[in-house]
Design goal:
about 350 residues, 2 domains, nine-stranded mixed β-sheet, single chain, Thrombin, subunit H, about 20% helix, alpha/beta, 17 strands, QueA-like
């Protein structure tokens, strides 16, 4: 299986730069994974496309405003940090620009002194381990809320006017460096309509890392090494999944992150139960799904691990043909784009 098998021609103007004024007015392409048949809807049609007894599993991770700009107090040299992973309360792995200024022992200030950082070491791959200091009456997250910017994907070049639009309406657990974008289409009103129809909603947490944007460089897909991300599947969600399966309902993951969480637990534990840990699961065609019956997802980058995951669920030929249709029908792609329902 080759990376080039998952290439498709995407006109640049189809890459959505801004979210729609109303979240649930995004278009929704429904793909039947058994027949390859596609149908065109809007996201607000979702209650009519699901059945009572179905269970949606969403990722409630919340994006940190993790991009901060500062300088060296001794030289005034500018520096950009992107906080990637919390190692201890104020110790983080960060991506730095420019790297030549961030040698071990270097000190930087952000937000006119609200936050100070000392570089401890250079990690494998070039990231830095950094120790932050701040007023003990605050924590680093409240300070990031004051001085940080949303770490939008590299293909989004427009400024985001309202940073809550890069959060799902049900986000709660701080920790992601990128949004679980399939959930951006939901509104409180739509979630209420779903529940009124008998469609339940359960939560998992997977903190999305920037590795989600890392391209597949190896031509042989099997040589690609997946990034690792932290997940938690609560006991209540495990119970709801078990009840849904027992009653003949369907479990539908909202986003590839929810999918990876559920399939990781089912794979590592041999069953769906409460679990927490790190996963680098790589789902591609030939993978046998152990938990989910359907998926809601956005349209992904050519040759990405995400389109490979979709192909594993919907079938390679069906997926590539559906993407061809999506381009022809001028669907909007990527984080702020339209959605696909595979069911």
């Amino acid at each position: 299986m080759l990376k080039s098998d998952f290439y498709f021609d995407l006109p640049p103007e189809l890459i959505a730069q801004t979210p729609l004024p109303q979240r649930d007015h995004s278009r929704l392409l429904q793909l039947n994974p058994r027949t390859g048949e596609v149908a065109h809807h809007h996201f607000y049609d979702l209650p009519e496309l699901l059945q009572p007894g179905d269970l949606l599993v969403v990722n409630d991770s919340r994006v940190i405003p993790a991009r901060i700009y500062g300088q060296r107090p001794d030289t005034g040299g500018a520096m950009e940090f992107l906080l990637l992973e919390q190692k201890a309360s104020d110790r983080w792995e960060v991506l730095v620009k420019p790297g030549r200024r961030a040698k071990p022992g270097a000190v930087f200030e952000f937000g006119e002194g609200l936050l100070k950082a000392t570089v401890l070491e250079v990690l494998e791959g070039g990231n830095r381990l950094v120790q932050f200091e701040h007023d003990p009456s605050e924590n680093i997250f409240t300070i990031l809320d004051k001085i940080g910017q949303m770490p939008l994907p590299p293909y989004i070049t427009h400024k985001l006017e309202d940073r809550e639009r890069y959060q799902t309406v049900y986000s709660n657990e701080l920790g992601s460096a990128a949004a679980p974008t399939a959930g951006l289409h939901f509104t409180p009103e739509l979630m209420k309509k779903l529940e009124e129809k008998g469609i339940r909603i359960a939560k998992v947490t997977l903190h999305v890392g920037l590795g989600t944007f890392r391209p597949v460089k190896e031509e042989n897909v099997l040589d690609h090494k997946m990034h690792s991300e932290h997940y938690h599947l609560p006991a209540e969600t495990a119970r709801m999944i078990q009840e849904t399966k027992a009653a003949g309902g369907r479990v539908i993951a909202v986003g590839t992150t929810s999918c990876r969480t559920l399939e990781s637990v089912a794979t590592f534990c041999g069953e769906i139960r409460e679990a927490e840990g790190w996963t680098d699961i790589f789902i591609y065609p030939s993978y046998e799904f152990k938990c989910i019956d359907g998926l809601i997802t956005n349209f992904h980058l050519p040759e990405s691990t995400l389109i490979m995951l979709v192909s594993a669920l919907a079938g390679y030929e069906h997926t590539m043909e559906a993407y061809k249709v999506a381009v022809q029908e001028r669907y909007r792609f990527f984080s702020f784009g339209d959605a696909m329902l595979i069911l």
